[in-house]
Amino acid sequence: MDAVEELLADVHRLTAQGAGTPVCGTRGHPAGHVCLVPPAEVGFGEVREAIGSRFGEPRGLATGGTVDPAASVRTGSPLLVPFGERVVEMRAWAYGDRWIGCGTARADDGVGDVRLVVLVAEREDPAAGLPEPASWVDGIVAVTGWDTNRARTVDWAAVEARLGTGLPGDYKRLAEIFGGAGAFDGYLQLQVPDAPFDSSDIVRHTEWLGEWARTRGSDLWEPYPVFPAPGGLLQWASTEQAHGFYWLTGDPDPDRWPVLAKEDVPDSWERFDGTTGEFVHRLLTDPDHPFSTARWFDVHWYQDYGSPSPDHDRP
Asked: Is 87 helix (H, G, I), strand (E, B) or coil?
């Protein structure tokens, strides 16, 4: 195991659920975080990329010695506290009830050499103290602490024309707010328009799945047909464990489509008669949900995968 892998192993250990309050051994540093010793032979960019390969795209808290004025407890400011005004760079990753930080800071006197810093800090529940959300989607934003300023615009008329059907309104809002590639609690991956991979692009994947079912049969989805067959299944999310999440498209009103979900085993269908937003919110927060992540995490997040180069190979 090389030095960077050892550092990542320490990060994983400190982000384990139920790990307790982190206490830093660095003199003068407050409780609530742990500073790690980064490898002497590597730089900020290499360590940042290594952490990003495991935890996704980071948030920028400080660049060139300037702290983001919008930085807050909800966006990772606990990572800045140990260094105060000495912070030069800081990137933040959310993971459950922890923040992971990688950056650079000046020496204790504030004028010395700039050094690499890596730390893990406590992360408060981003939904704590917030008013009751107005919708299920607002609730998902609240519990993940996601920044809605990063929302994108989607040409839904063009997307729906290519699919040949309308789509549920709360799904469209989720796709706009949470972007092109990522996963809730690092688990549930939305399929959205213009995603970087075929398998996570709702249009390209739907076309591929329909062609597969047409040419090879739909036994894998029995007893349901596959869209564009009338009333067929249209997939909107998946997991790395090959779980599939679909709408049953029989109702002419997409907002009334039930959600059907299955594990990667036969006859494992679960039906949910509610909206897409309610399904995702309950998955994150209800331990009794059949696909719940609340059994493993008390604090939730959205892991952003950024925008890698398109990969048109099937998984």
From this structure: strand
Site of tokens 């407050």: 30
Say which residues have a Cβ less than 8 Å from residue 159's Cβ, sequence separation at least 6.
167, 193, 202, 203
Helix (H) or strand (E) holding 303: strand 302-304
pLDDT in tens, the chain (315 residues): 588 999 999 999 999 877 778 889 888 888 899 999 888 888 999 999 999 999 999 999 999 999 999 999 999 999 999 999 999 999 999 999 999 999 999 987 656 689 999 999 999 999 998 999 999 999 999 999 998 887 889 999 999 999 999 999 999 999 999 977 789 999 999 999 988 788 889 999 999 999 999 999 888 899 999 999 999 999 999 998 879 999 999 999 999 999 999 987 777 899 999 999 999 999 999 999 999 999 999 999 999 987 543 333 332
Angstrom distance (rounded) from CA 174 to CA 296: 23
- What is the residue-wise DSSP string for 142-160? HHHT--GGG-----HHHHH
pTM given for the model: 0.90
Distance of alpha carbon 13 from alpha carbon 8, whole angstroms: 9
Number of residues that make up the chain: 315
Nearest CA-CA partner of 202 in 130, 276, 134: 276
**Residues sharing a CB contact under 8 Å with residue 188, sequence separation 6 or more, in sequence order:** 237, 239, 245, 280, 283, 291, 293
Instruction: Report the distance separating Cα 114 and Cα 215, nearest Å.
Output: 60
Measure Cα distances from 142 to 12, 129, 236, 242 in Å.
Answer: 25, 10, 22, 27
